[in-house]
UniProtKB/TrEMBL annotation:
The keyword Metal-binding applies. Pfam families: E1-E2_ATPase (PF00122), HMA (PF00403), Hydrolase (PF00702). NCBIfam families: ATPase-IB1_Cu, ATPase-IB_hvy, ATPase_P-type. Its main location: membrane. This is Heavy metal translocating P-type ATPase. Residues 584-641 form the PDZ domain. The lineage of its organism: Bacteria, Pseudomonadati, Pseudomonadota, Betaproteobacteria, Burkholderiales. It comes from Rhodoferax potami. CDD domains: HMA, P-type_ATPase_Cu-like.
Length: 751
């Protein structure tokens, strides 16, 4: 008896109190220890965890694990919801710290002018102690939890360093009070208070708090893409009910309901236009600013803006099933994911704090045993502890990923996972599906060559057989029949023959309509139209044939030729990629003549055309392109492209305005292009390159900062105050560098 393994489910938890890469490692470790957890990914920038489990009822246990690790479990969207806070939210403790520190640092300014403004030791104690133990309580709490878990984090380093400075000051002051002051008085000497370091500990605590506050402000900007998407969802809808039009919460809308949408309002959910005609702004979905005309029957997407007309829509999808929810989920998944490069950071973070503690101890002993006072040795050790805080290290990768995926979403490029983002910049071959991706995907019937039939009779048979099909070629045949006002008969026993065509009955006739290759397999005599078929193919047409199953075999009835047009911008998009040194390949199920004719119009060489490829063989063609170490991106728009998208190093699903399986392609792809513009391919590769560059810059500076700062502090070139300022600056600079990505726009031509 076999037992089915339950499929994994995902639980998201917000986490408060994380400060550095070591915190991330600690929370991940705590979550992975919970029985039933498959994997856990913690993101410092989004302050959240994504946990894969087999039991959806484990959330309470996971939250307890987060709390036991010393952190605060929050709502998954806590970082996004905190959005409404003012620009100065959370500044209170920082402001108090700055006010208390100002009198402590004024003597430093006085020294520059030869003035002695040093405060009495008691005043220094009274000003510094609240900063150390009240404002700095968070460092002690989090550091204590880290010690209990036998790990280290930024808070532990700050707590140890500032406590050492405060404790040294207390020891020097009390030693003076208990011995030095009395001895000076007994000898009639002036009482000179010792130099204390209260200002160092207080200023370091305040600077770290200031750095964290600035970092939090900057972090809010990285989540702006998600917040903007959430803001597209209206709270209420105008429902047409039994008593007329009533306003109801969107959460109560059901599939099948009829809703009124007034001019200028956002569509609350996905639906189909029942009444009216309007222009719709879909820029939130596609990045395309021009409004789109919508007639009765057209698809409407929740979150898009209704133009000038009052319309009625019938609800097709609500809640998590809407397109907007899918977009939000894709962006959230990308921003919550870890890029492969982050593994290096995680490995470093796991040993970073223990190594720093050892370096600080070596610094202390080294200075002390080389003839310096314990006071001097301790101050240098404190500087090492303070400057080594790994905040910048933990933020370097996620901050860049959030900024990059956010700005890409704004222009209609949805990056599903961080791995796709990281790999895309190395792509050196881009393979395009032809129909619907490089071409408009709405072929026209350009020629009908009947054999033994009248033209309209052949058209009626072809249209009847394909009247239930959504295939682009079938729609082209039906459109001609509609234009001629012909009454199309209904077919029976219709079957799709994968990669070949369609068969079924129209009236009493058993018909087959499909590729010339299929006709050859069936033994159909194509001799009467062979020359015409060759001429049509040479002109770039896709040629199909219709035949009838008769007692004596399969007899040819007609030849049908279809032509598609290249998409606007397709030729420029391919040229842009080639200018960047990227090979472009077109994959088509058409015969070679038709495929090469279209390739010529697109500016492609014949050697870069893979023709007569069955849908099931596309993945194998992509695998062949990958041979020899090539990094391949596959661009497609339909169900039959899904295996090839999954087989490529980077799959790009191009949204098809006519439907036709785009959702399936989106699930198989790492990147989704929300409008059918081939120029977006170059733009997607460009934002990948720029994001990875930011990640590398951030990691370089984070590593370089610690690699340079720790030795300088150990050698005595940095005071604790300067070290604290440098540490705060490093985190803010990493976040600011990542935010520069928000200025990115796809250049004209995608270059």
């Amino acid at each position: 008896m076999s037992t089915e393994t339950p499929s994994p489910t995902t639980i998201d938890i917000g986490i408060g109190g994380m400060t550095c890469a070591s915190c991330v490692m600690r929370v991940e470790k705590a979550l992975k220890k919970v029985p039933g957890v498959d994997s856990a990914t913690v993101n410092l920038a989004t302050e959240s965890a994504r946990i894969a489990v087999h039991d959806a009822g484990m959330e309470a246990r996971l939250r307890r694990a987060v709390r036991d690790a010393g952190y605060e479990p929050l709502a998954p969207s806590a970082a996004i919801d905190a959005e409404d806070a003012s620009a100065w939210a959370g500044f209170g403790p920082v402001g108090i710290g700055l006010a208390l520190c100002l009198p402590l640092v004024l003597p430093m300014a006085g020294d520059l002018f030869g003035k002695d403004w040093m405060l009495p030791a008691l005043w220094q104690f009274l000003l510094a102690t609240p900063v150390q133990f009240i404002l700095g309580a968070r460092f002690y709490k989090a550091g204590w939890h880290a010690l209990l878990a036998r790990t280290g984090n930024m808070d532990l380093l700050v707590a140890l360093g500032t406590s050492a400075g405060w404790g040294l000051s207390m020891w020097l002051w009390l030693s003076f009070l208990w011995g030095g002051a009395a001895e000076h008085a007994a000898h009639g000497m002036a009482v000179m208070e010792p130099h204390l370091y209260f200002e160092s500990s207080a200023v370091v605590v305040t600077l770290v708090l200031l750095g964290k506050w600035l970092e939090t402000r900057t972090k809010r900007q990285t989540t702006s893409a998600i917040r903007a998407l959430h803001g597209l969802r209206p709270d209420t809808a105008h429902l047409i009910g039994r008593d007329g039009e009533v306003d109801v919460p969107v959460a109560e809308v059901l599939v099948g309901d009829k809703l009124v949408v007034k001019p200028g309002e956002r569509f609350p959910v996905d639906g189909a236009l029942l009444e009216g005609r309007t222009q719709v702004d879909e820029s939130m979905l596609t990045g395309e600013p021009l409004p789109v005309t919508k007639e009765v029957g057209a698809k409407l997407t929740g979150g898009s803006i209704n133009g000038e007309g009052r319309v009625v829509l019938q609800v097709r999808a609500v809640g998590v099933d809407t397109v907007l929810s899918s977009i939000i989920r894709l962006v959230e998944d990308a921003q919550a994911a870890k890029a492969p490069i982050q593994r290096l950071v995680d490995q470093v973070s796991a040993v970073f704090v223990p190594v720093v503690l050892v370096i600080a101890l070596v610094t202390l002993l080294g200075w002390y045993f080389t003839g310096n006072s314990f006071e001097v040795a301790l101050i240098h050790a404190v500087a090492v502890l303070v400057i080594a805080c790994p905040c910048a290290l933990g933020l370097a990768t996620p901050a860049a990923i959030m900024a990059g995926t956010g700005v890409a979403a704004k222009f209609g490029i949805l990056i599903k996972d961080a791995q796709a983002l990281e790999v895309a910049h190395t792509v050196n071959v881009v393979a395009f599906d032809k129909t619907g991706t490089l071409t408009v995907g709405q072929p026209r019937l350009t020629a009908l060559v009947p054999v033994g039939l009248a033209n309209d009779e052949a058209l009626l048979l072809a249209a009847g057989l394909q009247s239930g099909s959504e295939h682009p070629l079938a729609r082209a045949v039906l459109q001609v029949a509609k234009d001629k006002a012909l009454t199309v008969p209904a077919p029976t026993d219709v079957q799709a023959v994968a990669g070949r065509g369609t068969q079924g009955k129209v009236g009493e006739r058993t018909l087959l309509l499909g590729s010339l290759r299929w006709m050859a397999e069936l033994g159909v005599d194509m001799a009467p139209v062979a020359a015409q078929a060759a001429d049509l193919q040479a002109g770039g047409a896709t040629v199909s044939a219709m035949a009838e199953q008769q007692a004596g075999g399969v007899k040819l009835l007609a030849l049908l030729a279809f032509a598609d047009e290249p998409k606007p911008g397709a030729k420029e998009a391919l040229a842009t990629l080639r200018d960047r040194g990227i090979q472009t390949v077109m994959i088509s199920g058409d015969n070679r003549g038709a495929a090469e004719a279209m390739a010529k119009r697109l500016g492609l060489d014949a050697k870069d055309v893979l023709a007569e490829v069955l849908p099931g063989d596309k993945a194998a063609k992509v695998a062949a392109l990958k041979a020899g170490g090539k990094v391949v991106a596959m661009v497609g728009d339909g169900v039959n492209d899904a295996p090839a998208l999954a087989a490529a190093d980077v799959g790009m699903a191009m949204a098809n305005p006519n439907g036709g399986g785009t959702d399936v392609a989106m699930h198989a792809a790492g990147i989704t292009l929300m409008r059918g513009d081939p120029l977006l391919v170059a733009a997607a590769l460009d934002i990948s390159r720029r994001t990875v560059a930011k990640i590398r810059q951030n990691l370089f500076w984070a590593f370089a900062y610690n690699a340079a700062g720790i030795p300088l502090a150990a050698l005595g070139y940095l005071s604790p105050v300067v070290a604290g300022a440098a540490m705060a600056l490093s985190s803010v600079s990493v976040m600011t560098n990542a935010l520069l990505l928000k200025r990115w726009t796809p250049e004209k031509g995608g270059k």
